[in-house]
Specification:
Two copies of one chain form a homodimer.
Chain A: E1 6-11, H1 16-27, E2 32-39, E3 47-50, E4 53-56, E5 58-59, E6 70-73, H2 77-89, E7 93-96, H3 112-115, E8 125-127, H4 131-147, E9 149-157, H5 165-179, H6 218-230, E10 237-241, E11 251-259, H7 266-274, E12 279-281, H8 293-296, E13 302-309, E14 316-323, H9 327-343
Parallel strand pairs in A: 1-2, 1-6, 2-5, 6-7, 7-8, 9-10, 12-13
Antiparallel strand pairs in A: 3-4, 9-11, 11-14, 13-14
Active site (chains A, B): 131, 251
Binding site for phosphate (chains A, B): 102
InterPro entries (chains A, B): Asp-semialdehyde_DH_CS, Asp_semialdehyde_DH, Asp_semialdehyde_DH_beta, NAD(P)-bd_dom_sf, Semialdehyde_DH_NAD-bd, Semialdhyde_DH_dimer_dom
Chain lengths: 348, 348
Amino acid sequence: MSASGLHVAVVGATGAVGQQMVQTLENRNFPIRKLTLLSSARSAGTKVSYNGQDIIVEEAKPESFEDVDIALFSAGGSISKLFAPEAVKRGAIVVDNTSAYRMDPDVPLVVPEVNEEDLRTHNGIIANPNCSTIQMVVALEPIRKKYGLSKVVVSTYQAVSGAGAAAIEELHTQSQDIIDGKEAKPEILPVKGDQKHYQIAFNAIPQIDKFQDNGYTFEEMKMINETKKIMHMPQLKVAATCVRLPVVTGHSESVYIELESENTTVSELQALLESAPGIVLQDRPEEQLYPMPAHSVGKNDVFVGRIRKDLDDQKGFHLWIVSDNLLKGAAWNSVQIAESLVKLGIVK
Amino acid sequence: MSASGLHVAVVGATGAVGQQMVQTLENRNFPIRKLTLLSSARSAGTKVSYNGQDIIVEEAKPESFEDVDIALFSAGGSISKLFAPEAVKRGAIVVDNTSAYRMDPDVPLVVPEVNEEDLRTHNGIIANPNCSTIQMVVALEPIRKKYGLSKVVVSTYQAVSGAGAAAIEELHTQSQDIIDGKEAKPEILPVKGDQKHYQIAFNAIPQIDKFQDNGYTFEEMKMINETKKIMHMPQLKVAATCVRLPVVTGHSESVYIELESENTTVSELQALLESAPGIVLQDRPEEQLYPMPAHSVGKNDVFVGRIRKDLDDQKGFHLWIVSDNLLKGAAWNSVQIAESLVKLGIVK
């Protein structure tokens, strides 16, 4: 920490994403004068390492946000609803990684590669989008800009770490039980607070978050609504099917898109995405080079490959998009927003 | 076996699918006078149980097919190319579960729920479609018949058993190694005969079969071409992205379709599929009822759920289709073709 930097708070510092936030702040050498780590009463007292020094996690209270410049929240929507206004009241800018404020018209929903300028319109709270949305819009935005975009149909392949540390533990325990010929005992996935739980090991569960009355899950509706908001395209056709897999970390997405312009080629899309911010192109089928979740872990990039032209529709293309859901999908995008706030002079 | 039945041969009787064929013949009480089990020289001598009696597997030779009425082939395309004509020459009807003859215009490609009548046009060989194709067309055909069908975009979630018994072993070994903190040693998947091999445990690999020059894999092109042939719809728009998962058995598919008729409702599609042959509807989101691979194992049915109307396109719908890839995807569809041959009086 340096004398001249900012006072940053991380709320939910002991969770799967919170820990990645602290680690990412360190890795990025973010200009920090003081780091305050906050949590529920239950986790208070835990020590978290930052730049070789142990910081004791404190219980979050309204007063905890006095003198804070930027507060990164990732402790569940109810905690954000409770404390984000308190932080704003005390002069902090909140970057909230829950779904609490994402669709609030007064709250910018930001992926810096796509709509960094929206940060200028903030009223104290900035929302970090859903993990599966972020990696998709990073890949789609350069395409939209150059060729126009009219339709998106995505099927996801999502890792259990999106459901927290207990879900990771459940996947490992169930995998071992099944290898040992024992029965799996599902207790958490697909949704901890829902009525039924299903085996995730060696299975695929087509439910992430609870169901809405229209038959879509909340996760699917997040992808649909957030994509339109981030890309400033209320008219964009977006459909999503979200599926949980026995993968620890790294979300994958099979995405079908329709462009506005005709006669675009695969090579043109590859060249465009290769030079686009935040993207690593991995698309050489002849060398079996394509993105995979196991190779994305620990990296900030969005990996794109398997780009194919639709065989029937001149405007149709298929892509395979992979990213570490805890980093670009959560912690890194939040820290990146904080970096943009500094860069744009919004936080001084 | 009864004195009045047929002489059936199974080629590849010791493989993952071949064993399921023998088991399915037994479960269905197929009218068998004599059962001849054939394999490569390497596996000859193995004993396989059928109706409580051990049958010794013999090395396949042209003469093995003397007096055979129906020969079920599942020993790889090169074996089919070598022996299927020999079997036909000797008066047998071949049901071939490899890709060797599927796109041959003189060979019917049959899923009995969809195009059973095509069996009448056979010239000795009948092809059994690719596993991922079969379960999809079973669900799409009733929809096509009633509402018309113009476009299909499918993303698959495929089990390793489609790549054989060694791939199942590889998934288990790798899973144990990773749980134990060791490094995974990929040797088989995604494609045994391809240059590179990748970890399948806790990962997702967007490659099944080798790549074609157009960037699609052979598996994807099989789904595209076979769907058009089986449904007699050369003009149908079909696109596929095929992905291998750490699931032992049970393929899942996220399918987006566009109908020809407008104003169809989810309830109408549910009612239609509920009474369609070979389908079990599992679609009650409010009870978290939807198809999953772990629940499909050992069953002949195609399970359909998560039926949703597209939120933008009046003609668009989304479905989630799951089936046991070794049964309806392979062994059961082959035996079902044999049953149809008897029922239609083609084999007597």
